Amino acid sequence: MNLKCIDKDMLVEGAFLRALSSLGSEKVQRALSLVSDKFLSLLPLKSLNCKKIFIPRENGAKMRLCVMSSGVKTGKRAGILWLHGGGYSLGAPEMAAFSFPEKLIKNINCVVVSPNYTLSAKAPYPAAFQDACAALEWMLENKEKLGIDGKKIIVGGESAGGGLACALAIYARDTGKDCFAFQIPLYPMLDDRVTKTSYNNSAPVWGTAENKSAWRIYLEDRVMNQNVPVYAAPARENNFSFLPPVISAVGTADPFYSEDISYFNNIRSSGAEVKLFVAKGAYHAFDMLAPYAEISKAAVDFLLDSCRDFIEKYL
User: Fold this and answer.
1) Of 41, 168, 176, 295, which residue is least crowded by CB atoms under 10 Å?
2) 101 with 110: CB under 8 angstroms?
3) Pair 153, 78: CB distance under 8 Å
4) Residues 157, 159, 164, CA angle at the centre, nearest 5°?
C-alpha cells in the first residue's frame, strides 16, 4: 500500500501513525490488551450522560455496561447496542467518547448500551461473542426501563465491534429473535482468511501484520481453518437471507475493504437494503482518527442521515 493512495487530508497523519505503530506484533497486542481497558475506562463520558452498571457474564463474573443517553428529545427514542473496536484484543466501551456513538447521542434521540466484552488476550472466541449475547439479552429485557420506543433495537460497532454486530445479526436470525431493526457495522472485521485488500496491506493504523496478529489471538490455532464458526468470522456465512438492513462506511485503503464490500453485496442481493459510504483513500477508523478530513465529515453526515431514514423506515 503506497501512502500516495491515501486521501490528501489524512496523508501526513497517516505517515506518522504508520511510523509509530507496533500493533503488527502479537506480543505487543497482548501486552497492550492488559492495560487498554483500564486506561480507556478513564475517558470522560459525562457529556454522553453515561451510567455504568454491571451485569453477570455466563461464567458468573461481572461485565461493565456503559449506558449512554441522548439529550435530543424529538422523534422516536432508539435503542442501540454498540460494540467497541480494537481488533478483539484492545479497546473499551468508553471509546464512545470519540467514536460514532458520540455522534449518534448528540444528533439522534437514542439510548446506547456498550459492554466491555472480554478481550481476546484474556480469553479467545467465543468469550467476546458470549458477552455480546449477554448484553443483548439484558438490553431486550430492560427496553422499557431504558425508555426505548418500538419493538426492535439497533446493533452496531466499529472494526472488531462491527464484526460482533454482524455476528449478533446472524445469531438473532438463526435463533428467531427478530430483534434488530437494522445494523450499523462500520468497517467491520469479518474474515480471518486472506482477501485481496488484507494481503500485503501496509496502510496506516491497521494493515496485514496487525490483522494477522489480531486474528491469531482471537481464534488461536483455528485461524484460517475450515471449521471457524460464522459467529467468529461472519464473512464465512453462506446464507444471507432475512438479515437486517445495513448502514456502513469503509475506506478503500482499509484491509477490510474487500471483505466488507463482498459481505454487504451479499446482504443486498438477498433483499435487504444497504446504505454504504465508500471513502476513497481512507484508512481504517478514518472517521475517528482523522475527523477533520473532508471525507470523514462526509461519511459522518451520510451515516447520521441514513440512521434517521432507517429509524423512520424500520424502527
Assistant:
1) 176
2) no
3) yes
4) 55
